[in-house]
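Dear Dr. L.,

I hope this message finds you well. Following up on our conversation about the binding site, I have prepared a predicted three-dimensional model of the protein together with S-adenosylmethionine. For your records, I am including the exact sequence and ligand specification that went into the calculation, followed by the structure tokens. Please feel free to forward this to your student if that is useful.
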Amino acid sequence: MIKVKSNNSLRYHVYHIVTLFYPAGKIEFLDEADVTKADIHVEVRGNEMTIDFFGEISSSPYPDRDLNVMRRALFILLEKKTEKHLPWGILIGIRPSKIVRELIEKGRNRDEVVQELQEEYLADKDKILLAYEVALKESMLLKTVDTENSVDIYIGMPFCPSRCLYCSFASNVYRGNQYKDRYLELMKQEMHIIRSHIDGNRLKINNVYFGGGTPTAVSDEEFEDVMATISDCFIKDRDILEFTVEAGRVDSITETKLESMKRYNATRISINPQSMNDDTLRLIGRNHSHDKVIEIFNLARDMGFDNINMDMILGLPSEHLSDVENTIDAVRKLSPESITVHGLALKRASRLYEDFLMEKKYALPSQEEMNLMYEKTDRMARDLGLMPYYMYRQKNMVGNLENVGYAKEGMENLYNMVMIEEIKTIIAVGADGVTKKVKNGKIERFANFKGLNDYTERFQEMMENKMSFLKE
Ligand SMILES: C[S@@+](CC[C@H](N)C(=O)[O-])C[C@H]1O[C@@H](n2cnc3c(N)ncnc32)[C@H](O)[C@@H]1O
Ligand code: SF4
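The resulting structure of the complex is given below.
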């Protein structure tokens, strides 16, 4: 256990830097008044900062109460001690490309952006350049978005064939679920209510995203029925730019469901491997082999789907660089139009997190391996002609890396960009759907119930509140 102490006012910020290097469960934070000797003690008095780092004491100026001064000093000490190289430096924020976009808007050129972010955040040049590339793409594509008179629609299917080890999304095992029929009925009702709101207010719909959970987790007939409702409410006779179906889990995708997706004009679908190693797929609880991913992908291609996305996760338990290389080779052969690369995040509501608390051991890749996994995946994407177009980071990501979407030119998913950048209203339908209302740059949120019991039993109350929220 590493004992850490700081002025109480700095506690939160010190904690964030230390957790980049040590797992949260290994850190004990002492109160400022505690007389116990700490391994790391950060103390600020006036314009001076003193750090006692495992017995080595250093003092330095602390001008303008600039937290980054403290963050950098502590980061450098930790990096030396742990010999871990964290490519984003002290940048913990969710959207690195937003910082870059703001600098570009202030007139900085590429070299100036690199220099500023290297100095301020100790970030690596290649990560800054990645954020720069994304920022340029965002500036170009987001300019085209009508943020005033149109909304985007998200529909969430909160069922999955089984729950993956790492996942904290609204996902309930479909088979034998007692709420399933009632839920599907109410979700369709919700779509009709939202359709009336949209038509009543003469709003346009640009992008529709059907995700989850797993949209295809339900039976072929139920899927057809839900797709028909989505189409009736949000697609038919409207000038839609994108209709994405995140089919996702190949053990739930059938030819009949792909036919429904075609019938209702899905423009982009996801077929997600996460990993193409059968041992990993078993460990994370995805009950299918890598062969199934290839089979379903080829079936979708044969049926004419020409915009297929694949999600990958880097840093999965038990995976080493050679495993990711295997996944990369398989994805390369399939040649999708876009890939979304996620760094494993330890989510509180996941089984993985619970297992960690129970000290169940998983071999997670080293930082060095993670960095190489990212490098190799980036190379594969570019070899396929896919360029980075959106990016975000999360808390508790293994190796503190990033999630990046890569796509062929013209195949970028606008919904994803709009959602991350929060530039226009997104109305979300279904359990755990979070509606974001964006008005004059201000963002307000309304969250549907996440639990199926609440969603089904308190639907009326939820919808009354939701409609008053939307009308405000
Ligand atoms: C809504 S989820 C899943 C879509 C679909 N149900 C599937 O599993 O293929 C969207 C994506 O988030 C990623 N994801 C989910 N949980 C994650 C975690 N804890 N760490 C990193 N990526 C995660 C996965 O790549 C997943 O495909
Ligand atoms: S990763 Fe996808 S399939 Fe797995 S539990 Fe989460 S939402 Fe469901």
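In brief: The first helix runs from residue 11 to 21.

With kind regards,
A. P.
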